[in-house]
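Renewal narrative, Specific Aim 1. Our central claim is that a sequence can be written position by position from structural information alone. The example that follows is taken directly from our test logs and has not been curated for this report. It begins with the structure tokens describing the chain, in the order in which they were read.
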């Protein structure tokens, strides 16, 4: 079985032009037309960008078995490798299931079956917009069809969606790994609003729209309030200098979750962390043998 490439994906250093446009446009438009601005912003933040699939992902998919997931009258693109107890991989925002590919071969070699899909409005899956609850319901369907999932690995938004699925009993996993995750959609939205300098009145409208879309008050999506009941053991892995999701989100989750163990991996980045050999080894040891490391020493980025 081919080894994953040693070259790691780079965390984006250059900010997309559209982000600069939003940081200029939203503050100006929001002061004049807060409701209109809120509706524009709300749709924008629910529409993930699609990026070309790199060659390493094509190679990984070529040796998979396609297994799609029905979702709202469509089919989400999914893939499976190996045979045995199933490990589910949940990718982050604007990413794809195969981005989690570094975990596949070691798990398959150890007798695990690995399943992933491209979330709604991501990668090869249809749709234009999605949200945390929508993603979690897709995970629920996948678990019903291709599970039960013995364990899962979630990254960033995929970690948050997986956590929602866990606390709402959509999945019942023995072990979970949440990488650069966050338990609170509300705080995530507040950070985004500050970053694009959204006027407070516009931000209040956006929050009301988020409540409508998710069908519940946003404080119910502060998932650290609900994790004490979970019986799963968990590894929380996070670069303390992560520029996308602040480290304190994982710390809050650790403090609320009796079965969680938090590991700092300095310099691993937000996306590159998924291909860091030390991280991959620690995750595999946990999911295969239940080993909880004393620490995770990151390898230098290349």
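The sequence written for that structure reads:
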């Amino acid at each position: 079985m081919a080894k994953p490439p040693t070259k790691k994906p780079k965390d984006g250093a250059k900010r997309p032009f559209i982000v600069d446009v939003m940081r200029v446009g939203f503050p100006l438009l929001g002061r004049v037309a807060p409701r209109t601005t809120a509706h524009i912003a709300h749709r924008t933040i629910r529409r993930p960008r699609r990026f070309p699939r790199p060659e390493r992902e094509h190679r990984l998919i070529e040796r998979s078995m396609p297994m799609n997931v029905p979702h709202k009258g469509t089919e989400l693109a999914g893939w499976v490798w190996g045979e045995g107890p199933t490990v589910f991989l949940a990718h982050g925002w604007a990413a794809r299931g195969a981005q989690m590919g570094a975990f596949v071969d070691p798990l398959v070699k150890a007798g695990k079956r690995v399943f992933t899909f491209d979330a709604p409005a991501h990668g090869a899956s249809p749709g234009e917009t999605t949200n945390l609850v929508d993603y979690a319901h897709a995970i629920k369907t996948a678990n019903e069809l291709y599970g039960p999932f013995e364990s899962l690995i979630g990254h960033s938004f995929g970690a948050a969606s997986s956590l929602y699925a866990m606390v709402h009993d959509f999945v019942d996993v023995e072990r979970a790994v949440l990488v650069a995750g966050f338990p609170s959609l509300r705080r995530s939205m507040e950070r985004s609003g500050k970053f694009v300098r959204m006027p407070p009145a516009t931000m209040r409208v956006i929050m009301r729209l988020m409540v409508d879309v998710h069908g519940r008050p946003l404080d119910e999506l502060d998932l650290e309030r609900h994790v004490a009941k979970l019986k799963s053991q968990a590894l929380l892995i996070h670069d303390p200098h992560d520029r996308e999701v602040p480290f304190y989100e994982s710390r809050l989750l650790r403090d609320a979750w009796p079965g969680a163990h938090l590991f700092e991996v300095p310099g691993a980045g937000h996306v590159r962390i998924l291909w860091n050999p030390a991280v991959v080894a620690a995750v595999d040891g946990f999911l295969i043998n239940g080993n909880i490391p004393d620490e995770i020493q990151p390898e230098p980025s290349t």
